[in-house]
């Protein structure tokens, strides 16, 4: 695009050139007439002079002769007497015209440079600002008549740059907030197309952003109950909240869904925003709490009822029968021990679950841990004619609390013995990876169904309640095991098959990170 200065110079050049060309044409048309008249006038004057000279010489010249002399003198306008002055005159006129043209162009250029060039510069800056280049600045010259315009456009550019920085900062903050909020977020425009989703939403529904962006919410595979809720928010055009159970990839999720309309300026309807809070853990914890209250009440009531019933029977006269007295006292003692174990495990679990609980880390031999745990559970193993088959050829040293790790292994060995038939074996092996020590305990017991594995670490959860209670367990052992392993920053994995046995794999870090 041509600049304003170039346009003005070009326009003025054409204007001056046209004027000078017009003057040249006019002069070229009038000059021959003027020359002819001048020649004729000079010829007449010379005829008069010739006539006077002839008369003084006493020679008679009539009017016809005078006219003939005049014609001869007039027709001599192409003679050498007139050609040279005409050429000289044309050269002079051409030089004057060219000089005037050049002077006019130079004057125009300097004038436009002073007034039009700053405007061109401001125009270029304005174009750059329109393109989004807010760093562009106009040249400021205090002596220029357009200095105020340049200053104003620079102030505008600085303000736009500041606004752009603020907008970008707010945009990044909003993006960070949306992407890192713990709840799934989805914004749907007025046409029903998904315009914004965050990472939590994509991860929760196992979509990709490309699969849902700018797609109709009804066509991306959302659960039917959620789609009905979105339709309801669109229909009512008001905020709404609802708890729903959604199945995602065959897993049940409890969701609290909040929907609200998005209203722009002047009440313009822009769409709706949907926020989904996954409250599955809260629902699960609430269920665990209810189960815990019910289970602990039942577990405490059973031994207390037994103790109370047998003691009342003894007080009613059964104590006089020595055989009955001895039998009842053994039952009371057994139930008292069971009650004591239950209370001790409850206190132990409460202590472990307290905030700030930690274990005392030290260099610990896992082989020594497993040997001592096996020794302490050997009496129960012998009662069922079972055997330990161990693979403890190598030792693995980890950062851990020996007493707590012995407690973990003892609980697992006790469970393996308890839920295995007689004349079977319990397998113990010790392995290591680059970062962890690995303990594997496998039995040949009753096993469990795969759907029950996620719940075995819950307090008081029992697969076979009657058999578990008869075994003397409190139902808190595996809950304690899990908490102690987590205190060591380790992990525990369970594999089981009904009728074939169960395997526990424990990973303890070799070095604890501070």
From TrEMBL:
Its main location: membrane. Keywords: ATP-binding, Cell membrane, Kinase, Membrane, Nucleotide-binding, Phosphoprotein, Transferase, Transmembrane, Transmembrane helix, Two-component regulatory system. The keyword Cell membrane applies. GO terms for biological process: cellular response to phosphate starvation; regulation of DNA-templated transcription. The chain crosses the membrane at residues 12-31, 89-109. Pfam families: HATPase_c (PF02518), HisKA (PF00512), PAS (PF00989). Gene3D superfamilies: 1.10.287.130, 6.10.340.10, Histidine kinase-like ATPase, C-terminal domain, PAS domain. The keyword Nucleus does not apply. It catalyses: ATP + protein L-histidine = ADP + protein N-phospho-L-histidine. NCBIfam families: PnpS, sensory_box. This is histidine kinase. It comes from Paenisporosarcina quisquiliarum.
């Amino acid at each position: 695009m041509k600049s304003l200065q170039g346009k003005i110079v070009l326009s003025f050049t054409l204007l001056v050139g046209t004027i000078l060309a017009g003057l040249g044409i006019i002069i070229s048309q009038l000059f021959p007439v003027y020359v002819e008249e001048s020649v004729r006038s000079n010829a007449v004057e010379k005829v008069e002079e010739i006539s006077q000279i002839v008369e003084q010489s006493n020679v008679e010249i009539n009017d016809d002769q005078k006219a003939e002399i005049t014609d001869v003198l007039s027709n001599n306008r192409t003679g050498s007497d007139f050609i040279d002055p005409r050429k000289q005159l044309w050269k002079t006129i051409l030089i004057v015209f060219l000089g005037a043209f050049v002077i006019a162009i130079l004057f125009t250029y300097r004038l436009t440079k002073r007034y039009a060039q700053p405007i061109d510069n401001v125009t270029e800056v304005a174009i750059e600002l329109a393109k989004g280049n807010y760093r562009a600045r106009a040249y400021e010259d205090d002596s220029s008549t357009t200095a105020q315009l340049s200053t104003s456009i620079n102030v505008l550019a600085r303000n736009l740059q500041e606004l752009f920085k603020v907008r970008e900062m707010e945009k990044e903050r909003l993006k960070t907030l949306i992407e890192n909020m713990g709840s799934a977020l989805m914004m749907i425009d007025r046409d029903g197309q998904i315009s914004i989703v965050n990472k939590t939403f994509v991860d929760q529904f196992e979509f990709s952003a490309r699969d849902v962006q700018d797609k109709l919410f009804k066509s991306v595979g959302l659960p039917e109950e959620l789609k009905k809720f979105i339709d309801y928010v669109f229909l009512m055009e008001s905020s709404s909240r609802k708890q729903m159970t959604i199945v995602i990839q065959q897993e049940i999720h409890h969701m609290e869904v909040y929907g609200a309309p998005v209203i722009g300026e002047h009440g313009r309807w822009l769409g709706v925003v949907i926020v989904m809070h996954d409250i599955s853990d809260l629902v699960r914890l609430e269920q665990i709490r209810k189960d815990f209250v019910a289970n602990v009440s039942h577990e405490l009531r059973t031994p207390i009822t037994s103790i109370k019933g047998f003691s009342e029977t003894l007080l009613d006269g059964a104590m006089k029968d020595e055989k009955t007295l001895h039998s009842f006292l053994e039952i009371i003692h057994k139930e008292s021990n069971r009650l004591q174990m239950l209370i001790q495990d409850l206190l132990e679990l409460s202590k472990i679950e307290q905030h700030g609980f930690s274990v005392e880390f030290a260099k610990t031999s896992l082989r020594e841990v497993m040997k001592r745990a096996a020794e302490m559970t050997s009496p129960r193993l012998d009662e069922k004619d079972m055997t330990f088959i161990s693979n403890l050829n190598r030792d693995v040293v980890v950062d851990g609390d020996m007493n707590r790790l012995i407690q973990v292994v003892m609980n697992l060995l006790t469970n393996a013995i308890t839920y295995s038939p007689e004349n079977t074996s319990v397998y113990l092996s010790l392995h290591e990876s680059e970062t962890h020590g690995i303990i594997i305990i496998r039995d040949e017991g009753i096993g469990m169904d795969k759907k029950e594995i996620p719940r075995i670490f819950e307090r008081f959860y029992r697969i076979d309640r009657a058999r578990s209670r008869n075994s003397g367990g409190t139902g808190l052992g595996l809950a304690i095991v899990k908490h102690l392993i987590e205190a060591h920053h380790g992990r525990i994995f369970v594999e089981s098959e009904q009728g074939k046995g169960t395997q526990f794999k424990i990973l303890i870090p070799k070095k604890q990170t501070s």
